[in-house]
Amino acid sequence: MIVEDLWRLFDIIGTLAFAVSGALVGLSRRMDIFGISVLALATAVGGGMVRDVLVGITPPMALRDTTNFLLSVGVALATSLLYQWTALHRMRRQRLLKIFNVSDTIGLAAFTITGALTGVRVGGEDSYVLPILLAATTAVGGGMIRDVLAQRMPVVLYAEVYAAASLVGAFVFCMLRFTLGVEADSWLAFMLVLVIRFAAIHWNWSLYHPRPPKRHREEGHEERT
To answer: Is pTM beyond 0.85 here?
Structure first.
């Protein structure tokens, strides 16, 4: 499989997955079909557009090819219909959260690869910093735009290991691409991001959270009471 086809495959996977996560956020916020479509579209193409602007690809690829727009809107419509006419709307919040986490994690992993591949293509074969940073930007950018539009704290700022999973996957991609070849390396990095993120969700892994000492927290609580 040539690099362009590989990039396109992961781009479609990420677009579909992130469009689902964006639509679910819109449904949870009780938006109308336009708002749901906007969130799905912003999640699916937002990170890629930021990536393209950063490396001087203008207009961004998402604006030159309507495929991702059509896929995103189609997913938003399908998710909305499923929510209204099936048992999806009767699911407990925890089950809907699981669907969100699965789709969001797949999108995170897929766009990590598209960002890394773009960085290698633009920055050269010996580049490491650019592919890793573009991978993280592509992977988390759309989700941040989605969450800001939905007026909630971006997942990347508080969730269990999230952007870190993308950074690790991109780092492994850069380290092993000459050894394994681009195709095998891409799938390995993709699976690695999935495993790290799902493990973080399952075992509640998180990065270091600075907190005041216990004594200070108790004093603050006494002052409030």
So the answer is: yes
